[in-house]
């Protein structure tokens, strides 16, 4: 049902196989990316795309559609972690409310299944992906392409953002594992 991919790239990563679902919440276009981390170095992109709703539909119907599609992603790919962009500032109140509602759907669906849920701010994602928290969208998209070993930048931008969120979690988790291992070795 969802756009699948078998693109993979070697990166320093987690020590076991895990699946990360990255979500870039949005009411009209909700980006998603499913990345599988295998062993310590292999990241495979299993799916990438957007969940779309029509602005002509009533808000409850749009939220119900997105909720159902998020549940289907969870059923199909069985992620161990759901990483969602955390919006803490938005100049457009209406946009902020709809993004918050969609974010809540993803957080709730993952929590009901007992999955690990992580939220990352846009600056955290930019820093993890490009090394600079002030990077622009083009720089982030270029690094997503490079880190996943893709021939082209993922489209649409919402899908690329979801991949960046998932990669941010993988990088953050890898760092946490390395810190823990260093503490264990020094103890």
From TrEMBL:
Descriptive protein name: Unannotated protein
Q: Which family does it belong to?
A: Belongs to the RuvC family.
Is Cytoplasm among this UniProt entry's keywords?
yes
User: Which is a GO BP term held by this UniProt record?
Assistant: DNA repair
Question: What HAMAP family does the record point to?
Answer: RuvC (MF_00034)
Q: Which organism is it from?
A: freshwater metagenome
The question of whether Hydrolase is a record keyword is answered with: yes
Query: What PROSITE patterns has UniProt attached to this entry?
Result: RUVC
Q: Name one Pfam family in it.
A: RuvC
Q: Which GO terms describe its molecular function?
A: crossover junction DNA endonuclease activity; DNA binding; metal ion binding
């Amino acid at each position: 049902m969802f756009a699948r991919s078998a693109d993979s790239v070697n990166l320093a990563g987690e020590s076991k196989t895990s699946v990360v679902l990255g979500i870039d919440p949005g009411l009209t276009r909700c980006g998603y990316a499913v990345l599988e981390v295998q062993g310590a170095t292999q990241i495979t992109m299993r799916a990438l795309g957007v969940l779309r709703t029509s602005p002509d539909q009533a808000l409850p119907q749009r939220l119900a559609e997105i909720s159902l599609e998020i549940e289907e992603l969870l059923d199909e790919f069985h992620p161990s972690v759901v990483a969602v962009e955390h919006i803490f500032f938005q100049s457009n109140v209406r946009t902020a409310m709809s993004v918050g509602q969609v974010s809540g759907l993803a957080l709730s669906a993952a929590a009901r299944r007992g999955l690990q849920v992580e939220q990352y701010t846009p600056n955290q994602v930019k820093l993890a992906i490009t090394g600079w928290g002030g990077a622009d969208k083009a720089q982030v998209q270029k690094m997503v392409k490079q880190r996943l070993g893709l021939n082209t930048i993922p489209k649409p931008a919402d899908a690329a953002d979801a991949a960046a969120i998932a990669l941010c979690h993988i990088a953050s988790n890898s760092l946490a594992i390395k810190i823990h291992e260093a503490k264990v070795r020094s103890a």
